Amino acid sequence: MSQLLRLIFRIRNFLLFAILELVSFWLIVKNSYYWDVSFFNTSNYYAAKTLEASNYIKSFVNLGKVNDQLVRENAELKKAMAALSQLKAREGDYYKVDSAFATRFDFKVAKVVNSTVSLSKNYLTIDKGKLDGIEPGMGVICPQGVVGQVMQCSDHFSRVYSILHSEFNVSSEVNNQALRSKNEKALGIAKWGGLNPRVIDLTTIDRFKPIKKGDSVVTSEQNVIFPSGTMVGKIRKLGAKQDQAFFDIEVELTTDFQNISYVYVVNNKLKNEQEKLEESTRPEIKK
Amino acid sequence: MNSQTVIRLIVTFFIYLLLQIVVLRNFVFFDVAFCFVYIACILLLPDEIPPVWVILISFLTGLLVDIFYNTAGVHASASVLIGYLRAYVIKFLFPTKGVENEIVISLKDMGAERFIRYVAILTLVHHSMLFFVEAGGFAFFLITILKIICSVVFTTFMIIILQYVRGN
Questions:
Q1: Which of A79, A158, A229, B25 is 20 to 30 A (C-alpha) from B116?
Q2: Residues near A154 by Cβ (< 8 Å), separated by ≥ 6?
Q3: Where are the beta strands (DSSP E) in A100-144?
Q4: What confidence tier does A287 reach under pLDDT thresholds 50, 70, 90?
Q5: What is the DSSP letter of A32?
Q6: Distance (Å, rounded) from C-alpha A1 to C-alpha B41?
Q7: Is A25 on the interface with B (CB under 8 A)?
Q8: CA distance A284 to A112
Q9: Interface list for A 220-259 with B (CB within 8 A)
Q10: pLDDT at residue A91 greater than cutoff 60
Q11: pLDDT at A101 over 80
Q12: Which residue of B has its CA nearest to A61?
């Protein structure tokens, strides 16, 4: 008997090991049958609390990926929204929009890799180029508003005129209640003055139009490169000299060019067709 | 072993465990390289702790990790295995132990080569057991082997890095 005890004592490590392995495997087997009744899983309160902290860290690790997903989803939504708003004709018009026209805008997401705001002709560089289907002439907008127009493309990058460029015009209109109720339009041309990267000038608006400070300025329906109704900014200062026919308007841009990161490149699929038609019919007007 | 050493051991134990559960649980590279750095709790226990205790601590560690991985028993079985084999590996790698007396298990005191060999052997044993048990046999043999190799490299690397972090 004492010999047996001595043997047991000598192999006590192995016995303990064997027993604990048996317990482990019993847990494994039991767990695969009654998954959620076992104490040893995350339904345990303390385990769940700790995992919460762990997921918090995980969410930071995945931030970049989530950002990409959101931006892509936004592009899809923008496309759908533009199509929808283009499809809806103004009230009282006997005008029907056909779907090819309404869905003419296509959005692609790009990331701004370089930009300037302090020069007199400012440009942005984005990380999408010819291989991603970007072509010179496409419009560029961001969630806050108008950004510019694609100027040149390499295979993987594109250079974009910012609207903070002394030779770049945006056909815009003022949008407010008074104008809408009178069924009037206040069309003008937005152009950068060259100094403040937060402010753009709006010219050629009739000084008898009912507009006031704080009204929003959006791209007009005559705009070929941007979907109509894309935000440009809000009127900051309004004035007119006695002998002038037009307002002098300063518009505060909604786009923050200093902190711009993601942009959408807008492709107007009917742009070429429209321009070709206008180009080919021009000489006939002269005659 | 005085009480100060015991407290330091317990603190280290929880730091490794927290690191595993909160941070490294989320780091899986290419779906094959896992990092189970918690086994350092077992590997780095001082040599003077009796084997019975090492085995019990291993089981407890494995069980705690299991709770968070929802894999009741899988980590526990692998951990108990290395807890049991640890003494033999030490005897095998350092046959002069009895002569030189105490051996301190850390990168600084053992030297890089011996330490890496010690960690790599036990990590390999642990991960082999872990992944084969988790796969429920040898059905996914090749992918399991791939997982084991990648994870052994990752875990060993991580344990060594943490040794440097702790040394400073």
A1: B25
A2: A129, A130
A3: 105-115, 121-126, 139-142
A4: very low
A5: H
A6: 39
A7: yes
A8: 43
A9: none
A10: no
A11: no
A12: B26
Whole-angstrom distance, CA of residue A267 vs CA of residue A282 = 25
pLDDT in tens, A250-277: 888 888 887 788 888 988 888 888 888 8
Question: Does residue A28 belong to the interface with chain B, where contact is any CB pair within 8 Å?
Answer: yes
CA–CA min distance A43, chain B (Å): 9
Contacts A–B by Cβ distance under 8 A: 83
Give the integer Cα–Cα distance in Å for A172 and A187.
6
The total number of structural domains that make up chain A: 2
Task: Give the number of other CB atoms < 10 A from CB of residue A137.
Answer: 16
Helix (H) or strand (E) holding A267: strand A262-268
| Sequence letter at residue A187 | L
Q: Does B77 touch chain A (CB under 8 A)?
A: yes
Structural tokens at position B48: 């003077």
CA distance B74 to B76: 5
Q: Is B110 on the interface with A (CB under 8 A)?
A: no
Residues A157 and A24 in one domain: no
Q: Is the pLDDT of residue A38 over 80?
A: no
- d(C-alpha A194, C-alpha B164), whole Å: 56
The per-residue pLDDT of chain A, averaged, comes to 79
The answer to whether residues A120 and A236 belong to one domain is yes
Buried b (16+ CB within 10 A) or exposed e, A153-165: beeebbbbbbbbb
Is there a contact between B77 and A26 if contact means CB atoms under 8 Å apart? no
Domain limits at A125?
A: 105-287
- The answer to whether residues A254 and A231 touch, using CB atoms and an 8 Å cutoff, is yes
The residues, ordered by sequence, that sit 6+ positions from A145 with a Cβ below 8 Å of its Cβ are A230, A231, A232, A233, A253, A254, A255
Is residue A147 within 8 A of residue A160, CB to CB? The reply is: yes
A127 domain-assigned: yes
CA–CA dist A7, A10 (Å, integer): 5
A43 and A115 assigned to the same domain: no
